[in-house]
Amino acid sequence: MNAFDILDNLLILEQSGRGIQEFFSVNQISNVIVYGLGRIGVRVVKSLNNAGINIVCVLDKDAANIDAEGLEVIEPLDVGDYDDQAELVIVSVSEGYYEIKEELEKKTKVDIISIGEIVEYCKEGEPDLGLKVIRRPSKHIEAVKSKKIDVENRSRKLLIFGGGSGIGKAIAYRMLMDGADVVIAGRSIDRLNKTRIDFEKALLNSNTGMIKAGTVYVLQADIACVNQQNIYFERAKKLMGGLDAFVNSAGITLEQRGRGYEPWDISEQEWDEISDTDFKGAYFLIRNEVDYLLKNSISGNILNIASNAAYTDVIGLYGAAKLSMIKWTRAFGKRFGHDGIVINGIAPGATFTSMISSYAKSMDQVYSRHAIDRFIKPEEIAELAWFCLGKNGVSLCGTTIVADGGDSSAI
Q1: Three-state DSSP state, 376
Q2: Per-residue b/e over 285-316, b at no fewer than 16 CB within 10 Å?
Q3: What are the phi and psi torsion angles at 161 (to 5°)?
Q4: Residue 349 and residue 380: Cα distance in Å, rounded?
Q5: Residue 379 class from Cβ within 10 Å (0-12 exposed, 13-18 middle, 19+ buried)?
Q6: Burial class (CB in 10 A: 0-12, 13-18, 19+), 147
Q7: Domain total for the chain?
Q8: Which helix (H) or strand (E) holds 185?
Q9: Which of 103, 113, 174, 345 pairs with 16 at a CA distance of 20 to 30 A?
């Protein structure tokens, strides 16, 4: 939300008689610190006064030159001196919020939120949202911060979307072999049950050494149904008795039909169908997974399976959606690593699965577009996934590994 939108919406809220009181009432907040006393900051101060909220002080880098009647203006680096007096820091600056928040978090234990988020909350009028907007209630800050990064015990109970076939299936089996419990989720219950039976037979005949293989469960799920995503999490948690990691491998493409590479290869209906899963569904899935881990104070993992199509000149939705996923992996990873959540990704090249069955007929087939002259094996991607989801993957945090065998068409 830009500066003009913030100012306009604050004015609309005031004129409607609602103001921003609801946010503070629901969250039981009465004492705040305001960051920034520019044009938006002055308007925010007025709105807070109208809401009956006590402004403990104002943070501004130009504090020495600001004379604000009735307000104490201090340098941002001194914010920690007021931790015991305020419940919330409100950033009124519209640009560079996340950088400002990151710097403030080094100085204060008080929760931080932008005025844009408060305005969005009050516009939507969701009475049960509460501190979900802030992400972590003040009374739980120490508990969350103390969890940070649990290096040793990661990804013991996973929900793998797209786990019934292809790369997701290979990852599920690799994690089961490592002793983790896994819920494989997908749209086809028949395929999921077949995969479960295959896993159980393979595990029965495998030698996992000193490690006891995990248990596999199935869950019918469609990530395009955004309003069901949180329900899927709860069901997976109930099946396994816990949930601390997610693998997002579900996706659809036109490659099985030998199309999707040219501008005229896709209809409007197909665009909407793919977008609902690969773009909209994927974004909300990551966001809701982060919410789940934050809400439950879990030092967990999220692994996004993108594609090196993001780095090729493919014209169409699939590559664009996967490029977005790589961007989200980086942005979410950098922001929520501080909360003990490790988010990484893998961008495979042409991997020998049904998704590329239109041109990949055998693993023995020469594929000269790859420098290794063959297709990628799903098991190879699964090994990378195991690394990312375990203790050794913590240092990556926000990284997408490109595993495309030296694809000559990728930048």
Answers
A1: strand
A2: bbebbbebbbeeebbbbbbbbbbbbbbbebeb
A3: -80, 130
A4: 11
A5: middle
A6: middle
A7: 2
A8: strand 181-186
A9: 113
pTM of the model: 0.66
Cα distances from 157 to residues 18, 26, 196, in angstroms, run 44, 34, 16
The answer on 138 and 180 residing in a single domain is: no
**Using an 8 Å Cβ cutoff, are 183 and 245 in contact?**
no
Residue-range definition of the domain harbouring residue 82: 3-145
Confirm if 119 and 44 have CB atoms less than 8 A apart: no
d(CA 356, CA 361): 9
- HSE-CB at 25 with a 13 A cutoff on CA atoms is 12
Q: Which of 383, 384, 380, 386 is closest to 401 using CA atoms?
A: 384
Chunked into runs of 10 residues, the chain (411 residues) has average pLDDT values of 76 76 82 92 89 93 86 94 94 85 91 86 53 38 44 88 97 96 96 96 77 92 96 96 97 70 80 92 96 90 95 83 95 90 95 87 94 96 96 91 94 84
Contact present, 194 and 250 (Cβ < 8 Å)? no
Q: Does residue 150 form part of some domain?
A: no
The position carrying tokens 């490659």 is 255
